[in-house]
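Incident log, support desk, overnight shift.

02:14 A customer reports that sequence design results differ from what the structure should imply. Their input is reproduced verbatim below. On-call engineer (initials T.W.) acknowledged and began investigating.
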């Protein structure tokens, strides 16, 4: 059996918010596997559905840029080491420049693409060289962590105050972006920022995810001492709660929790005579683990 270290216990606690001793017991039962430890805690009813993204202490900013007609957009995360640097005008200006250039360039679809490009404001240097120069000047490492672009439909955005969390959202079924449509998609982007759904609707939840959740909830009910005859009946209610947590359209709307987000969209479509639907969203939070295409400027 793998040794359960204090670092492993802390990592599980950071992911779930469970107590140290409960985390240690869960890791022991899971053979030291963090993901299985999360499942074990959930089976005990101790931890809610944990996010699959790892967290870190990185600082930085999220910037979103939309085209004037709101049909294309980019969301960028740029990291540094301290909150002090992240709040400087120099840092904020650099992130804004990176987002502007990523949006404008058809050749950019990843951080690596942008790093290779000549800097629009000074073509004699590349973006990578520009960041390296900033690192040398400021004395802190910086990294272009993530970027994602969306085109088509009508786009909206929400940046939480402090620029640590941002959401870019795509709506289809509408051809123009009126003030009412922008208000609606911004409200839904704010919902995504606050409630962190993993899917738009339950049709996107994979069969494997559904079976895994059913297993967790079934085991949890058994451990709570529920009779086997009613465990399966309980699953329906608990799965409904699960879908409400992970599916955007089934979440209570943060501004009016008597409505789900899906009902909000339906009411808005009737009111404005539109056929809007949410096609995609991207949610970035500073410090979340970036993908493999996130090179650093040393």
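02:41 Re-run completed on a clean worker. Output:
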């Amino acid at each position: 059996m793998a040794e359960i270290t204090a670092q492993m216990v802390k990592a599980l606690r950071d992911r779930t918010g469970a107590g140290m001793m409960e985390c240690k017991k869960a890791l022991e039962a899971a053979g030291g596997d963090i993901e299985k430890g999360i499942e074990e805690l959930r089976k005990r009813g101790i931890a809610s559905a944990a996010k699959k993204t790892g967290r870190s202490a990185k600082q930085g900013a999220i910037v979103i840029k939309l085209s004037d007609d709101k049909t294309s957009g980019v969301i960028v995360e740029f990291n540094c080491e301290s909150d002090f640097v992240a709040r400087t005008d120099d840092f904020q200006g650099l992130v804004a420049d990176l987002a502007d250039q990523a949006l404008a360039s058809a050749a950019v679809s990843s951080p690596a693409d942008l790093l290779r490009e000549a800097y629009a404001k000074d073509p004699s240097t590349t973006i990578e060289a520009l960041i390296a120069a900033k690192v040398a000047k400021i004395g802190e490492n910086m990294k272009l962590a993530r970027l994602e672009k969306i085109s088509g439909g009508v786009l909206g955005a929400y940046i939480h105050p402090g620029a640590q969390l941002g959401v870019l959202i795509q709506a289809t079924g509408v051809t123009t972006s009126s003030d009412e449509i922008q208000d609606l998609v911004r409200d839904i982007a704010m919902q995504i920022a606050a409630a962190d759904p993993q899917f738009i609707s339950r049709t996107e939840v994979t069969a494997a995810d559904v079976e895994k959740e059913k297993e967790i909830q079934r085991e949890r009910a058994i451990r709570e001492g529920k009779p086997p005859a009613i465990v399966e009946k309980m699953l329906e209610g608990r799965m409904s709660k699960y879908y409400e947590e992970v599916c955007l359209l089934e979440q209570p709307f943060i501004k009016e929790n008597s409505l789900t987000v899906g009902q909000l969209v339906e009411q808005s479509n009737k009111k404005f005579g539109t056929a809007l639907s949410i096609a995609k969203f991207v949610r970035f939070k500073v410090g979340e683990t970036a993908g493999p295409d996130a090179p650093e400027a040393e």
